[in-house]
Write a structure and sequence with these properties.
CATH architecture of chain B: Orthogonal Bundle
Shape of chain B: globular
Number of domains of chain B: 1
CATH class of chain A: Alpha Beta
Order of helices and strands of chain A: EEEHEEHEHHHEHEHEEHHEE
Structural class of chain B: mainly alpha
Radius of gyration of chain A: 20 Å
Structural class of chain A: alpha/beta
Low-confidence stretches of chain B: none
Distance between the termini of chain A: 28 Å
Oligomer: heterotrimer
Helix content of chain A: 25-40%
Low-confidence stretches of chain A: none
Distance between the termini of chain B: 19 Å
Radius of gyration of chain B: 23 Å
Chains: A alpha/beta (320), B mainly alpha (288), C alpha/beta (338)
CATH superfamily of chain A: P-loop containing nucleotide triphosphate hydrolases
Largest sheet of chain B: none
Number of helices of chain B: 11
Number of strands of chain B: 0
CATH superfamily of chain B: MetI-like
Number of domains of chain A: 1
Strand content of chain A: 25-35%
Largest sheet of chain A: 8 strands, mixed
CATH topology of chain B: MetI-like fold
CATH architecture of chain A: 3-Layer(aba) Sandwich
Number of strands of chain A: 12
Number of helices of chain A: 9
Order of helices and strands of chain B: HHHHHHHHHHH
CATH class of chain B: Mainly Alpha
Helix content of chain B: over 70%
Mean pLDDT of chain B: 86
Strand order of the largest sheet of chain A: 6-7-8-3-9-10-12-11
Shape of chain A: globular
CATH topology of chain A: Rossmann fold
Amino acid sequence: MNSDILRVQDLRVYYHTPAGIVRAADGVSFLLKRGERLGLVGESGAGKTTTALAVMRLIKPPGRVEGGRILLGDQNLLNLSSEKMRKVRFAQISLIPQGAMNSLNPVMRIQDQITDIVKAHDGHFSKAQLQERVCELLKQVELRQETASMYPHELSGGMKQRVCVAMAITLRPKVIIADEPTSALDVVVQRQVMETLRKLQEDLEASVILVGHDMGLMAQFVDCVGVMYAGKLVELGSVREVFKEPLHPYTQLLIASLPSLETKGFFKGIPGLTPSLLNPPSGCAFHPRCPQGMDYCSSRVPSLKEVSPGRWVSCHLYEA
Amino acid sequence: MTTTPGRIRGSVRALRLNLLLTVGLLIVVCLVLFAYLGPLLTDAKRAEIGAFKPKQRPSSEHLLGTNTQGRDVLAVLTLATPQTLNIGLIAGAVGIAIGVLLGLISGYFSGPIDPIIRVGTDVFMTIPAIAILVVVATNVRAVNVVTMALIIASLAWRLPTRTIRAQTLSLRERGYVQVARLNGVGDLELLVKEILPNLLPYIIACFVATVSWAILATIGLEALGLGPQNEYTLGMMIYWARFYGAILRGFWWWWAPPIVMIVLIFVGLFFTSTGLDQIINTRLRRAV
Amino acid sequence: MTTLLEARHVTKLFGAGGGFFSREKTVALEDFSLAISGDPPSITAIAGESGSGKTTLVRLLLGIISPTSGEILHKGKHLQRMSREEWRAFRREVQAIFQDPFEAYNPFYKIDHVLTTPIAKFRLAKSKAEARELIENALRGVGLRPEETLGRHPHELSGGQRQRVMVARALLLNPRIILADEPVSMVDASLRATILESLLKLNQELGISVLYVTHDLTTAYQLAKNIIILYQGCVMETGDVERVIKNPQHPYTQLLIGSIPHPDPDLRWGQHDDRFKPEEAPRGMNRGCKFADRCPHVMDICHDTPPPLFRTDGSHAVACYLYRESPAADDATNDCEY
């Protein structure tokens, strides 16, 4: 149990919109060990970004965390005061949000944006110490020292994203959450950024949660992967096991639909439509599209069960 | 929320959320009722010279007293307000029409026409309106409500042109414009069928702003004495009040009512315009 | 037999950047030539990263922008010098699908608008009933149900459905070639296959050629027969997709393929090849090969003159001096003919 750095238990995040309640995350549970890389994969609307934001307690109205626990070590983050949570952010858990590279302040130099984070948490550092930290960080993300005095528009997409990674590790957090960090980047730059992130994570002995929709990227980067569908975690396990032997029908179809560089002209999609989170299907949310659906799949909601050590599935096929 | 009662409930809720717009619309509606129903309920003879004993203070008989010419001030106010509003509306409508035309052409077509219109608009915008208007007004012989409106309209098109041009420039690059071209739609039809409908929120907001400006401009001119001499307007009320020394002689019931009316008009239009702005921006944000 | 669509030595410069006195121009596409005969109907992929010029190429081929030098021809006629009739014929035969399924629809109208407009403009139907039938057939052809699609607003449909309606729209005109500019990059993974499959079907069953422009080499491999690899506006490698992907010869292609994240945890990215320098600064105005600054095999000649396409075998050509022993490609100019 000592190696579990983050434990999310039955997290529920609902958005109260004028059109109804959107169950963006509906009972998400997972464990993150020290030094582990966990991937949360799913299509748009699956609830992965909501989960990431909830862990950082960045859910804004009309969204609300309706239930569950987020345990960092022994502390339930949901019970902390906002001042204490502010101290936790970036110092213990860090987030590289979606589109981060486009959210850099266009009128501040890179070094000032990085030192801002330090100053916001602890104003006691001298100018020289801050400068040194900036140099160190830039070196860690493999950027040239000249980058410190540049403005965001002078950098390429990959460089900007590496600045965001540097900002996320400024205070040496224990957990780094990266939400689609490379979705706007080309495949070559993507690889560089991910390799940088991996190296950093290993140096810091931190854990990473990678949120995304690219199964290929997951296969390359993470140790454990969790598949999300309609706000629920439907499968969780080591990346090798999940790819070699996917248990949940959705995971099976998802992996089968991935285009490969082996066979030509082979297109296999998942029939049907992504579910509405306002009016999700009754019972198991995947049942309208599931090729292995059984009678009671439309009435009973399956729960996440551990079918073998470290291997979890939420499907009636495995409810022995 | 696609059912009709759902839509109505949604709109009511939206109105309630947007206090500014609601209050603004309320004021504007009251003004409109006063301005257009009022004259039907008032005897125009009460506003003529010598109708009553002059310089009377407000009383139960004359709610706003009478002026030095013996006119009942309330009656004058009732007849003057719609005239001022009319000038604003006509000038606003003409200004918007020209503005939309020039803005669309300038924003959509590349080539020499855009810089010409743009520079032209900029030049006109730097010259103080009052200077041009005074020059124009002093040279026009007979000034009535319509002429006044046209004089104002001669400059009311400037801001709409800029605003519509900016929006058109942005809309021109939208994906659906490219798709329309692929569908064989020609330029003119594109402007009218694809771009114009998406400009409607801006046009409406711009119209309200232009009407505001037009009313302000006309009152400015009239207060200087350059307005329609033989018609009742709010600006002329102020002019005549000054002309007859109402301020020095303490006849506050002559110059205060038109000022209060003007303030109400502006507050109403301003709130409406700002409230509309908020709605447009939230709608755009949600659409994105 | 005239070539359906052709680009001849097309260069496109964009004059942004710099101040009042600077003359900085960005080279979006440089001396690019491509010929698509349309007979037999082909699927060609144009693969490149952002900044490679692939979107510019699509816009040039559609006549949305005009080249700085060089020509775009449809059946032998220059786009710039077409009569109204020729232009209409061009529009009918050359259609496109764009990347963004959200932006492609005017929020003011229902989804039917984008389908009824071409029928009206090109007079494809003589009556409303006939038009309706055409639309319904087109929708069914891409796997959509007319009852569930027509009459709705764009925001009521998913990205995948919207994109399929776009394909249906392109089909209405019975084109001979469809330019697909990243048609699935903004669509959910599970819905991509259906769209790509429809493109394949169009080609195999209706004889429509496809120019598939993408940054995703894997889907390019799946769909296309021939591929052109672009980098900073220049052709790096071209040929049969099996050869280019399985046996990449240009260092840039090798870098690209090596960086693809394979969905196989046992096939991890190899040791990071440090010989490839990262793309740091904005593109330089080097006179030689565009990849020279980053290439681990760079030689002196690479900085001097841009390499021509060398034909290494039947349908495989590389623009790299490493292969200067091989003969230069046909008619001494860069030419991709499909």
